[in-house]
Amino acid sequence: HVKGLFVDAQQEILKNDTARVQLGGRDFTIKKQFVEDLENYNSLEHIQQLNKALLIFHSPLDQVVSIDEAARIYGAAKHPKSFISLGRADHLLSRSGDAQYVATVLSAWASLYLDELDSQDVGSETPDITIKEGVVVVRECDKKFTREIITASHHLISDEPVRMGGADKGANPYELLLAALGSCTSMTLRMYANHKKIDVESIEVELQHSRVHANDCAACEKQEAQVDKITRTIKLTGELDDQQRKRMLEIASRCPVHKTLENQILIETRQTD
From 3.40.190.10, 3.40.50.1820, 1.10.10.60, 3.40.30.10, which CATH number describes the 3-110 domain? Predict the structure, then answer.
């Protein structure tokens, strides 16, 4: 059924390698590689061999995918499988209430098939402290490396991998550091692209931390034997010319977290009761 959604644009896709099509009320860029992949992909055969729990959501008002397609998928799948009707939702769950409902149901359903973490390891669902905006509290979950991270609005877990003696229940501290820089970079680039009306379909930031000898770092002022190095690779998808791509790379270094990491940082530590 997927190819039928952009049948009118197939000639343009094959000729120009890409075309803009509208699906479910939103514009998407369809590439020739995607069309060719569909030709070689048997979705029902894949579903039959999936050997995984499967949950299918479908709305009777969906104008993009019919109930017949949902029935074919459900029939091809092996148990455990479930089907949930979404009532008045559209295909892309554009109403926030529909999206929240799907997220809640999916979370509850998935918990049947996932190993749940002990409550003493991950902390309570609702932290028993009130935190101000901009403050982060980190508490022990065990006597090893699992840590509960609490902010004014969010709650997550940090840990070390098993090979380091941890339980691998969350990202390690350096991964969280890279995540902070990567997410800030992506947000800054998106804000700039939207402001300048640059056609950026997606932004992907990949980061890696390492330690290198100072002699290998031409831009380093410090003369210590080793310095920390973060390698940041940015992938911009869209119709950008060379000048726009160059400018986007320059803007990446303007993200607030980037500036914080490059500035002199004063860490003040004190003890409390």
Answer: 3.40.50.1820
pTM (2 decimals)? 0.56
**255 CB contacts (<8 Å, ≥6 apart)?**
181, 184, 185, 187, 188, 189
Q: For residues 228 and 213, what is the distance between their CA atoms, to the nearest angstrom?
A: 9
Tally Cβ neighbours within 10 Å of residue 141.
22
Which residue stretches of the chain have pLDDT < 70?
1-28, 30-43, 115-128, 214-224
What are the residue ranges spanned by the domains of the chain? 3-110, 119-170, 174-262
Q: 151 is written with which tokens?
A: 């902010």
**What is the three-state SS of 18-68?**
EEEEEECCEEEEEEHHHHHHHHCCCHHHHHHCCCCCEEEEECCCCCCCCHH
Q: Among the residues of the chain, which ranges form H helices?
A: 10-16, 32-39, 43-48, 67-76, 96-110, 119-122, 173-196, 242-252, 256-262
Q: What is the DSSP letter of 273?
A: -
Q: Which residues contact 9 (CB under 8 A, 6 or more apart)?
A: 19, 20, 21, 30
